[in-house]
């Protein structure tokens, strides 16, 4: 009996071992009978949509690599359900899509984003059913786009939270829920409701700017008259998008122009923004109405033709005609700005935006002015300003950031220098006094000519030569006129940069600070391209006293933030003609209108009432302060207590934070990894330097 039981158990074991062999032989015979083993086997289990998800996953794998997808790639059927709230309404030519870091969602590329489908007639509810084969969590965002005449997608608005929406692979078992456009992670840092305007790719922008105290003279009309302005395209095919911004605190954002136009009076700020497809040039009519008039006819009309708008900037001198007549009744002076897409802008993607990234819980930054301080007119500074040596000295005294000035040479090489020019003389010329020198502008010299020039600085009672520092050797950290690319490559990425872009301004007196003949679009493009190639992956903010340059940087890319520098109301300097730079309030309104990070104001604007800093901070804007008065430790502490974003000051080696700060803020490795995402978002890199690769989802063992 015992032997029979043993024999029976042995036979059972043999049968169990033979079953897989039998199954394997059947499988092999079936494989021989068909030419596509994988497709036949999978079609018995998976539907067509799932097989397509497998194919997308396989296409991502390196050639010849076995993916073992049966274990790490699970077909995830995802239902994206979205609703529009917060008074967001789509235009007739606007649609919604979803983009993400997965191949099925287009790898953050706008042209590959997956369109969603309308769910109701009001176009407020949208959905998408999609099979995604994922081995690890993936991220995604929603966006609004339209199409131009060539079929190219135009990015209008997209979700700009610091952390994109996330989907874990195990969430296949969960209800998809409802997403609200613009809302994500409301309780997390960098989350909440946040939308970003798209950057320029297949269209360009024209801004018609009422930013001076006086723009028009109309016969019989007083200076205090209240008007309405209405801009109308005259093209047969309406392919223009017109928005308008009228400055008012917390209400300065661009909005679609209504049929009634926009209110205007002398001294107010109104900007028309026209978006058009590339290579399309339209004419416009500006109708001027008088508020309170019983007549429905316009007071006057101005016609703007495409051939009148030349280059990147200028001022139109236009006659104002009486309504339905050819008789001129006045004159309009109207400055304009043309913003073109940056070359190779298609390399950018929707991974994330840094336009508004500056968390409220960050401390007040200590920013060295041109290094450890301006040196050409201050004998107490030990290092020459705007040199790599002076920038590195900021780190030694535990400064967080450094402010530097950048401008372009005649051959469009970005170099670091504060003034618009310098005094020079022939190589062998003997210099006795200032009258032996001539003043030359940076824009008049190529980089080679600049490095071969003698350099003199004219001080109050003396003349000093700096030609011995105008070196060609890039290893000499004390040399003047360093290239911007050299600065990026030499300085450690833990040192934040505030890059001020120089451009001469028109003064309220009608005089220019200097002259500039370089194309403004190319000027900004070269600086941005140099920064994307050499300077990404570090805390970096662009800044300029020129409001138009801030607008251009904002519209051309999504990687680097920008702030407006302003004198505001000052008894030291003459005011600018541009009203946006004449007061602290208008600077804050501009930052809101242009959708930029914030402002940098002269400390004199807060001398009487320091609590005014809340005007900007309450709108979630950053606020930097600068000026010679900040060379005072007591005043620095007062503004730190008010939580301003940063303090830009001289003589950091004397009054800086070295005595009480253990380390500069941006030395934290987590922050360097965070800013490394700039390189990916700009298309300069496919991965974040130093970041750990994401781990695949670990699935439980099957019983």
Please give a structural write-up.
This protein is α+β, with helices and mostly antiparallel strands and 703 residues long. It is built from 15 helices and 36 strands. The strands form eight sheets. An eight-stranded parallel barrel has the order 24-25-31-32-33-34-35-36, surrounded by five helices. Strands 13, 14, 16, 17, 19, 22 and 23 form a seven-stranded antiparallel sheet that branches. Helix 7 (484-490) runs parallel beside helix 8 and helix 8 crosses helix 9. The chain is globular and about 85 Å long. Mean pLDDT is 86; it is low at 10-45, 66-71 and 693-703. Residues 60-183 form the CBM20 domain. It comes from Drosophila madeirensis. This is Glycerophosphocholine phosphodiesterase GPCPD1.
